[in-house]
Amino acid sequence: MRTGITPGQDSDYTGYDLVMADNLPQPAVLVADRGYESDKIREDIESHNALPMIPMRKNRKVRKAADMTIHTLRNMVERCFNKLKNSRRLATRHDKTADSFLGFIDLACISLWLRHLST
């Protein structure tokens, strides 16, 4: 898992390079929301022999199809974010430093993972 912080007013796709820069295994499919829909990201994903499952923005002139059955798997990620936001400390970001905030994100993810293993 890779987490990072970007300024709140930045668009989602500015964090793409931060997340994909690690030596993590390359995905076969990248499922993302419309915030990550840009030509640069699509080209980068396709250059790594992966399939981008990103819905097109409504103002796009050239449309590309996205398999919405695969895209519905994104719901699992959204539910995970919802469970993380049940922690008030994450939802309101009371931490003063980025390091302590990211550390608490890691602790909350470990807690969710352990809860998942026990069921």
From TrEMBL:
This is Transposase DDE domain protein. PANTHER family: BLR1914 PROTEIN, PHP DOMAIN PROTEIN. InterPro entries: Tnp_DDE_dom (IPR025668). Residues 31-115 form the Transposase DDE domain. Pfam families: DDE_Tnp_1_2.
